[in-house]
UniProtKB/TrEMBL annotation:
Keywords: Membrane, Transmembrane, Transmembrane helix
Domain of life: Bacteria
Pfam families: YdjM
The species this protein was found in: Candidatus Lloydbacteria bacterium RIFCSPLOWO2_01_FULL_50_20
InterPro entries: YdjM-like
Name assigned to this protein: Metal-dependent hydrolase
Membrane-spanning residues: 36-59, 80-106, 188-211
Length: 218
């Protein structure tokens, strides 16, 4: 159903958006350059920017294989982000773009934060097609899976990861809470930060409960 698709995709992308906000906030402190709300929005977009290929993948009916597009090739994506950031906003936005997309690629790497549902990433493409990651504290690589699954199955996987309190979901949402709690605390005050983090967790718990009740009723 569209609501659960949107909710699960939203939850899947939330950490990247919030991480983007967190990093531009830290950079604004470093550069002594206070930001306006829309500049935080640009930070959020930077954290999620490589996933712009999901739009293309959606039309190509190849959502599961979107890590194979140029936007998920770090050797292309990182310099491109720096150049665009530099032309549009100088040193500040070049650094913000670098950190935003670098974070995104780390998050897509298998084994990042000891999580394994990240899809994997070909860090060294075009020199190697393999997805590099970490498992049991060792660097590992593998060939990407060939995606022949139907679109519903791809959504099914997102449902299973984020609409249920899995280790992946809990770790990512804890980090999300820390990132946005920090930024809100620094800009709007500790009380609003605690309240916002509380509302976030109540919202997540409510989604998990409703989704659980709905799936057990079927
Ligand atoms: Zn991605």
């Amino acid at each position: 159903m569209w609501f659960w698709t949107l909710a699960s995709l939203g939850l899947a992308g939330f950490l990247d958006l919030v991480a983007g906000v967190f990093f531009v906030h830290l950079l604004s402190l470093y550069f002594g350059h206070p930001l306006l709300w829309w500049q935080y929005a640009i930070g959020a977009a930077l954290g999620a920017s490589p996933d712009i290929d999901l739009l293309y993948a959606f039309f190509k009916k190849n959502l599961g294989g979107h890590h194979e597009y140029l936007t998920h090739r770090p050797i292309i994506g990182i310099p491109l982000a720096i150049i665009i950031g530099w032309f549009l906003g100088g040193a500040f936005w070049a650094t913000a773009a670098l950190i935003g997309v670098f974070w995104h690629y780390l998050h897509d790497t298998e084994g990042f934060l000891c999580l394994y549902d990240n899809g994997g990433l070909a860090w060294f493409w075009p020199f190697s097609k393999e997805y590099w990651g970490v498992r049991d504290f060792r660097v590992v690589s593998r060939m990407p899976e060939v995606h022949t699954r139907k679109e519903e199955d791809v959504f099914d996987n997102v449902y299973k990861v984020y609409l249920i309190p899995t280790r992946q979901a809990i770790t990512e949402f804890l980090l999300t809470g820390i990132f946005f709690g920090y930024v809100i605390g620094d800009t709007l005050g500790v009380h609003i930060s605690v309240a916002a983090t509380y509302v976030f967790w109540v919202g997540v718990a409510a989604l998990w409960i409703v989704y659980h009740c709905r799936s057990t009723q079927r």
